[in-house]
Amino acid sequence: GDSVTQMEGPVTLSEEAFLTINCTYTATGYPSLFWYVQYPGEGLQLLLKATKADDKGSNKGFEATYRKETTSFHLEKGSVQVSDSAVYFCALLNSGGSNYKLTFGKGTLLTVNP
Amino acid sequence: NAGVTQTPKFQVLKTGQSMTLQCAQDMNHNSMYWYRQDPGMGLRLIYYSASEGTTDKGEVPNGYNVSRLNKREFSLRLESAAPSQTSVYFCASSARGVAETQETQYFGPGTRLLVL
Predict the structure, then answer these.
(1) Which end of chain A has less neighbouring CB within 10 Å, N or C?
(2) Around Cβ A45, how many Cβ atoms within 10 Å?
(3) Which of B101, B106, B112 to mutate to test the interface with A (most CBs of A within 10 A)?
(4) Which residue of A has its CA nearest to B55?
(5) Partner residue facing B42 (CB), from A49, A89, A95
(6) CA distance A93 to A3
(7) Binding-site residues on chain A for chain B (CB distance < 8 A)
(8) Confidence grade of residue B6 (pLDDT, cut at 50, 70, 90)
(9) pLDDT 10s digits, A51-110
């Protein structure tokens, strides 16, 4: 079945540091890939997505490129801020059969210190 | 436009008690979902409703039932709560239009459930 593996946290960075959170996936067919973010005490929000190979999703300074050859969708940001502290989830959506269900990674907690 | 709303925000139950978690969306979405979030486990799908009038089991359906009351509302019921059901529950919805694999799911704020 489909699965998503993302780097385990927690990740602690200083403000303005470079961020990478690794995500790899296993899926049949051609899934879409997503990064969701969960701020403390809130539900999940879509951060960015990519729907086909070599697509780059971007939002709020975050980027991720859909790499089919390495089955990866790593999240990057050049300069993190304290306000980026949150839990980040990588997810895939596969249209196999009639089930359009998101499969999530376990989440990575990011803490950014001033 | 409230998006996805959930009630209650927090609930404490004793083992064996029952309760219903409510979810509503005002985005005219076809599909709705219930997830549970546990530490170190990510989110796991409990049940989903691809369209009004249909429901299907997800990854962890045991101990739960759902009702798609109408297009807006999708409730999750615990008939006899157990401590293993202590979790944070999220409802989500998506439009499920032509390009389903590009669908964004929109999440509610969650319900924190503690079963003693």
Answers:
(1) C
(2) 13
(3) B101
(4) A99
(5) A89
(6) 10
(7) 4, 30-32, 34, 36, 42-46, 49, 51, 89, 93-95, 98-102, 104-107
(8) very high
(9) 889 999 999 999 999 999 999 999 999 999 999 999 999 999 876 555 567 889 999 999
